[in-house]
Amino acid sequence: MSEISRSEDRYDLGLLFTDGLPDLDANEGYRGAVAARAAGISYRQLDYWARTRLVEPTVRGAAGSGSQRLYGFRDILVLKLVKRLLDTGISLQQIRTAVNQLREAGVNDLAQTTLMSDGASVYLCTSNDEVIDLVSRGQGVFGIAVGKVLREVESSLVELDTQSSDPADELAARRAARAAG
């Protein structure tokens, strides 16, 4: 019973997925620079997407000048999915619709989820039958396996974590480098 209520609580917080992801501390997050690198986007894109509410940080939002946004694992997963969709030529408007549909769907089995597109619209397929049906109707042009992207994000974060032992030190190191140079 507590596991169910915990999943419902996470969904109520507006998180994208509740199953198939690492169970992370809700108060722990990644700074914008780390989130951008893990998602494979520029910091400028990250900032724009946060300001336009496409992908907002769920751990801590910006609260004025000098404050740091903190992104959760799920946020970084969404950032990477948005980048993949943009790279394939999908419009930002369609991507916004797809992200909202994913949030509403509350996907149960992430490893079996595929985002399909015909170049204009994005479809959420949660079974192989749905993928086959979409392709057989001549609508599916490409697909993005969400489970694969999830594993890529995990690997990126582990790699970035080994490069920087303490995320708090990252900001201090940049300030020291600026002061010295």
Strand order of the largest sheet: 4-3-5
The general outline is elongated
Structural class: mainly alpha
Largest sheet: 3 strands, antiparallel
Mean residue pLDDT: 74
Poorly predicted residue ranges: 1-21
Which band does the percent of strand residues land in? 5-15%
Order of helices and strands: HEHHEHHEEHEHH
Number of strands: 5
Query: Helix tally?
Result: 8
**Helix content range of the residues, please?**
40-55%
State the end-to-end CA separation. 57 Å
Rg estimate, integer Å: 17 Å
Structural write-up:
With 181 residues, this protein is mainly alpha-helical. Helices cover 54% and strands 9% of the residues. It has eight helices and five strands. It has helices at residues 2-12, 32-39, 43-51, 73-87, 92-105, 128-136, 146-163, 167-180; strands at 30-31, 70-71, 114-117, 122-125, 142-145. α2 (32-39) packs across α3, α2 packs across α4 and α4 packs across α7. The longest helix has 18 residues, at 146-163. The protein is elongated and about 60 Å long.
Question: What order do the helices and strands come in, and which of them pair?
Answer:
Blueprint: H1 2-12, E1 30-31, H2 32-39, H3 43-51, E2 70-71, H4 73-87, H5 92-105, E3 114-117, E4 122-125, H6 128-136, E5 142-145, H7 146-163, H8 167-180
Helix pairs in contact: 2-3, 2-4, 2-7, 4-7
